[in-house]
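Extended Data, panel c. Modelled sequence:
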Amino acid sequence: MSALEWLNEQFSFFGIPVYWSDFFGNILALATVWLALRRSLVAWPVQILGSVLLLIASLNVHLGGNAARQVVIIASASWGWATWRRSRQQEGTINVRWASWRERSALIAVMAVGTFAFAALLKSTDASFYPGAPWWMVLADAWIFVGSILAMYTQARRYVEFWFVWLAVDLVGVPLAIHSELYFSGIVYGIFFVMVLVGIRDWAAHSKGQEIASPLEPAVVLEGRTDSTTGA
């Protein structure tokens, strides 16, 4: 049996059938989120390896949108890795900040327009789920794809809103993964939800001094601070 064949084999995880590729890919995805919370450069290579495994899992269950998402994540993670390395060299640490309201508006617009545009492409090519799949399934697949791209972009730009984008992805990802019989992915998405809430609080606390308002409170001018606890 080849390594690829083995990765597409299932095993019982507390009575739930799970693909090995789905299992190891999501373990690395969890590690990626934890490392991102710590603002560690190691998050990026770990994310690349995890996405390769999740690409294998997605192709195995014919999730075209999710498979394309992993390809984009791999490419984006390479860019994000370089961006963070440059930031640490220039600033001595990985500083994070809130996006401006203009930047937030652009993110929301891209999320909405991108989801419908990519869903139309998936629907016209029958690349999501199966030929004739209902629109709600295709839209969910597209939402996760576009949301993941925006999450990668906002993470590389070091916006606190990075965590809010992942929250939007998780809310759709859990039911979609379970519906697609990627049960372990569904469990991991649930764990992501908790980690995302922790991430929002942590990055908000470490955001650089700025005149840009948190979306949760009035605009204030914060004193600048430098955090030396960034991971390697």
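The beta strands are 10-13, 16-19. This feature is highlighted in the accompanying rendering.
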